[in-house]
Amino acid sequence: MISSPANAEVIMDEKWEDFRSALKKWRAVEDQYFVEITKIIHGDKAALERSQPLVHELDKCQSQVEQAARRFTSNS
Predict the structure, then answer these.
(1) Which long-range CB contacts under 8 A does 52-56 form with residues at least 24 apart?
(2) CB 49 within 8 A of CB 39
(3) 27-55 burial: b if 16+ Cβ within 10 Å, else e
(4) Which of 72, 52, 76, 74 is nearest to 3 (CA)?
(5) Which residues have CB under 8 Å from 47's CB, separation 6+?
(6) Are 55 and 33 in contact (CB under 8 A)?
(7) pLDDT tens digit at each of 76 positions of the chain
(8) Alpha helices (H) in the chain, listed in sequence order
(9) 3-class SS at 42?
(10) Rounded CA gap, 20 and 42, in Å?
(11) How many Cβ atoms sit within 10 Å of the Cβ of residue 12?
(12) How many CA atoms lie within 13 A of 28 on its CB side?
């Protein structure tokens, strides 16, 4: 099956949006993490507990960004 240029453009647009969405989520979690780190620096001991799940979420988000980037740059 030969895809048309229009189909290829739609696929690239979808891949780009997937990448942007993953990156946007990663940045939001990163911002949240840095807020908690700032609170820790200023003596909020409970912020340490709140920051722990964010570390795991950051790792997950980074993986999603990397996967989306690979999909975006792949030829298929």
Answers:
(1) 54/29
(2) no
(3) eebeeebeebeebbeeeeeebeeebeebe
(4) 76
(5) 36, 37, 39, 40
(6) yes
(7) 455 677 878 888 999 999 999 999 999 999 999 999 999 999 999 999 999 999 999 999 999 999 999 998 887 6
(8) 5-41, 46-73
(9) coil
(10) 33
(11) 11
(12) 7
Q: At what angle do helices 46-73 and 5-41 cross, to 10 degrees?
A: 160
Amino acid letter, 19: F
Q: Read off the pTM.
A: 0.79
Q: How far is CA 61 from the centre of its chain?
A: 4
CB atoms closer than 10 angstroms to residue 72: 16
Write down the residue that tokens 């200023």 correspond to: 42
Amino acid at 13: D
